[in-house]
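Please review this one:
***
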Amino acid sequence: MNHHATDTHALAAAYALGALDDDERKDFDAHLRTCETCRQEAAGFQATTARLAAAVAEPPPPAAKAHVMAAVDGVRQLPPRVPAAGSAPALGGILRRRAVPLALAASVAAAALGGVAVWQTRNGQELEQQARQAQQQLDAVSAVLAAPDARTVHGKSANGALTTVVTSQQRNQAVFTAADLPAPGAGKTYQLWLDHDGTMLPAGLIDHDGTVMLTGDPADAGAVGLTLEPDGGSPRPTTDPLLLMALPA
């Protein structure tokens, strides 16, 4: 997980999340034409963000579309915003990294809005606890994605799941994302592992499509593993790995 030599390379996450200003985006578009590494990293960040949003999405209530369409006719269209002459230049370069977690939060929040009406029917105390947990996960995940040394690797498990791991040596943390992960079955769960020179150490559980922070210490790990285990997990793998993916170097 070596740090890129120039600041240009560190813009992959901000580019993928739409956190660059116009000039920065044009410069990075030109850079992508000659840098395969940044093309792969930007694509990885875009895929990870989409999966994060999908993981928290809920279907809107049936009446939502009708209510929105009925309200459209009563919404006055605002005039376009025209910047005042001589306005101060954008602080994109200064705020870029701060904007990355915000852009990620916005993408996740947008997917979740469709389920707000459903959530409102749940117990208020339960909602508050879920909101705190979701915010904590979002903060942790976005911090890894926004890290200047974030690196991404993609894989596919033996049962067809598409996987992504984003690591940050600076933060000594790693994020795992799965899509198209089949249901584990009754009494089973998927367990993640960190491979330390052939010793597999538990790194968390994942039951379905979504994103989780890996537990444990990824600093000296060479790979991430995925196995199917009994509910609650196991201290050591009890089945053949469905995935053993080398961590990004």
